[in-house]
Design a protein that fits this description.
Blueprint lengths: L2 H25 L6 H27 L6 H15 L5 H23 L4 H27 L4 E2 L5 H23 L2 H11 L1 H6 L4 H27 L1 E2 L1 H4 L3 H13 L4 H21 L4 H15 L7 H14 L1
Antiparallel strand pairs: 1-2
Helix pairs in contact: 2-6, 2-7, 2-9, 2-11, 2-12, 3-4, 3-5, 3-9, 3-11, 4-9, 6-9, 11-12, 12-13
Amino acid sequence: MNRVTRANTKKILYSVLLSFLFMLMVIMPLYVSPYTIILLNSIFMYIVLTVSWALFSGPTHYLSLASAAFFGIGIYSSAILGDQLPLLLVIGLGGFISFLLALLVGLSSLRLRGMYFTIFTFGLSELIRHSVQWWEVNKTGTVGRWVIGVDHTTVYYIMLAILLITLVAAYILKHSKYGLALLSIGESEEAADHIGINVNAMKIITFAISTFFMGATGAIMATRWTYIDPSIAFNPLFSFMPVLMAIFGGIGHIFGQILGASVLTLLADVLLTKFPYYYMLLYGMILVIVVLFLPKGLTGLKEEVKKWWGGRAVK
């Protein structure tokens, strides 16, 4: 069997497997418990946040900690507009408002590099959080809002749709000339500029697109929580967890990002249930061990095993 035939066979197998997984996901709410649906919603949420974050930060090496800002904007969009507009329109607006804010942020901040960009994006999240809290305390006289609830099954199917759109967008970008342009920016921004890539435009547009999915996810997940306030909507964990999940799974691979988000979400659920008082300590220890001994994440484990096995064979 030649290489072309093997490649075509793999594509067919992957297509069949993906089709099977999709059908399984579609019918799953009919056969599993409500708790499982709630857990899957959380997994989908973190996968979208992680893949969206890696869409821009992965190839460019710009470490953004602003995920909480755009996720929170989606949440507040749902809280403010949820009782006035149809649900799908609210979700779209949550993503679009995040997109517009990201364009403005990109225009002002993406000339920064390294730790300066990272500090700026984290500061942005905190600025928005405290600004919303100040507005509620001083202007509306309350802190927090009630959100119109939606049943878990509806949230599940909408989150599944957002997840699929995010994965398709990430795959298309990664295997396009724009993906190569982003990689070249990450390797050497000056060299990318010299060969004719519009570096600033590429960074700004990709950054803004990645935030659309974060905002849309926040808008639908808000309906699951019913009550939200600035500390919930703009929780810094929503900025740090996507970074850790991408590193844990393998930041350079979409499958690794999915794996990292899924495993860590499940791990957090188990640890929080079994060891509620030691949850964060155990969680942190596991992450430190992975970062130290698996710098390429879980997807790099295969390469590490090959190297280890090859070293044994030589001996």
